[in-house]
Amino acid sequence: MTAVPIAPFGDVLALFRDRAELSRTEVMELTGLSRSTVNGRLTALADAGLIEEIGGGESTGGRPSSRFAFRADRAVVIAADIGATGLTVGVCDLAGEPLRHVSRAIDVWQGPEAVLAEVASAVDELAIADEVWGVGVGVPGPVEFAAGRVVNPPIMTGWDGFDIAGWFGARWAVPVVVENDANARAVAEARAIGSDNLISLKLGTGVGSGLVFNGAIIRGSDGAAGDVGHTRSTAADDENPLPCRCGNLGCVEAYAGGWALRRDLDELGIATASVADLVEQVRRGQAEAVQAVRRAGRVLGDAIAGLVSVLNPATIVLSGLLADTGEVLLSGIRERVYQRAAPLATRNLEIRLSTIGELVGVRGLALVAADRVLAHEAGVGAA
Ligand SMILES: [Zn+2]
């Protein structure tokens, strides 16, 4: 399955998705298309129910210019955000706004059939009455995007090569997009703040990362790009690098992931019941827990300083449970990034916490699914 190229019709639709509402004149100015071509596109979009005339436009030369608004409520997309220990399935409008959602505890190691059956049952529970136009599925592992499969996932035993898109496609006859969960988050973060060049870090049990540059996810040639958590950490001792969950040695995650911090604290005799409990101890000012998170920040800062120099993002945004430690984590990251990355690359760089909230993954997956569907819709409409 390949993405349908965005036709000129799609350019006008993309504009509406970006700006929410526009006048006929604005569409002409922004696309460079003639009045008659724009009229044709607007009529086709209105016939498809994707825009509606809202009136009240500005006057140009005595003639009122009609205004049109994107109809995000025309249909819905389903977003299934599958994590290692839980999943959230949301029904979202075409702008990615979650309308309703349900969450379930799962164990991703149970394998695809068991976990996807939970997704299907969650979809049933949502009792969706609207037209469903697409499905976005997020998984905590590397995704061969065009094929909709996970490939050699370090923490998803039994999922390697499983045809996730095919599994959904057999149940719902709509386009299905499978995306790495960190990539989906990066899309949600980038669209929320209108940034075209952004690095998103998901810091929870593990270290996930997604890169959006020039407004698009950086996947690389095999879908492996952007996985900072499993690059070699500067904290790794050459003689005795710590083992990572992925089977490799000395990864960033083995020093800065929530599981690694719990391991370190355990060795100091400080018990943590979960990553959430660790975060709670940091908030209470437990000295060793605070130190561990500060150190993790420096490890992460070292790991992304090189990326900042090479790619020059405008924003680095942190989400996930560990991000709830706020300044404790941020300070270490800032310290190392500003110290080690190229000055020109950090001059306007903003390092900040996500403000989207817990449904960031669901939003990102809905946007990725809507991107696919509306590009497809555009292709059909323009034909
Ligand atoms: Zn690793």
TrEMBL record:
Specify the Transcriptional regulator DIP2311-like C-terminal domain's residue ranges.
21-63
**Matches recorded under InterPro entries:** ATPase_NBD, DIP2311-like_C, ROK, ROK_cs, WH-like_DNA-bd_sf, WH_DNA-bd_sf
Which PANTHER family did the record assign? GLUCOKINASE, ROK (REPRESSOR, ORF, KINASE) FAMILY
> Which Pfam families does UniProt cross-reference here?
DIP2311-like_C, ROK
Protein's name in the database: ROK family transcriptional regulator
Q: Which family does it belong to?
A: Belongs to the ROK (NagC/XylR) family.
Identify the species of origin: Schumannella soli
Q: Which domain of life is it from?
A: Bacteria
